[in-house]
Amino acid sequence: MAELxxxxxxxxxxxxxxxxxxxxxxxxxxxxxxxxxxxxxTSTWTKPSGITTIKVYVTGAGGGGGGTRTNxxxxxxxxxGGAGGTAIKILDVTDITTCTVTIGAGGAGGTxASGLGNxxxxxxxxxxxxxxxxxxxxxxxxxxxxxxxxxxGGANRQGGDGGDGSNGDINLSxxxxxxxxxxxxxxxxxxxxxxxxxxxxxxEGYGAASPTNGAHGGAGGGAHGSYGSTxxxxxxxxxxxxxxEEYS
Length: 248
Prior knowledge:
The strands form four sheets. A five-stranded antiparallel beta sheet has the order 4-15-6-7-12, with no helix packed on it. Strands 5-8-9-10-11 form a five-stranded antiparallel beta sheet, with no helix packed on it. By secondary structure, it is an all-beta fold. It is built from no helices and 15 strands. A hairpin with a 5-residue loop joins strand 1 and strand 2 (about 10-15).
């Protein structure tokens, strides 16, 4: 067995083509921990001991689905919301101790109304910003998706726009929501889009149960109706999400 002597206490040995490093030479870097923030509102990320680098994923909230018309004589549907955007950034946090995490709230589903159902609300913006320490970086943000238009009146209704990530190393736009065709209630609207993390709600077809809500920045489904009535409310967009991977 060959041995390469580098010093009185350090040696690299070889056996069968495999190099073995002594404990003193094995690095200690790598992924050490992860913090995930999913509740709408503001909270604080605190750097764990020994962490020097982080990889941050910031995703905006999903938009709500559109409502539908009351007295739904033709089974009109609401359109789906758009998905939140995402920004991904690697940061040196050697001189940063805490950061402010903001999670955007999911957009509410549009309510039913005569003529045209109401448009769903847009999802909120998520962000990651320096709070304390001598280091600095530009705040990372991701806007939420737009709300889907309400159904009714015989016209095709537009889905919500996707949100946009900014100030990341990678900035991604969320997918726009699907429109809803008012064709006598015989078809469902397009499936709501998921965010970078998935989490799309569902749009139900004619005469079916209420659409479902999005998750992790995914969009809410549009409301649906059967002849002479409305069927459930529109789906709510999923709140945003921030994931912080922590490296030594």
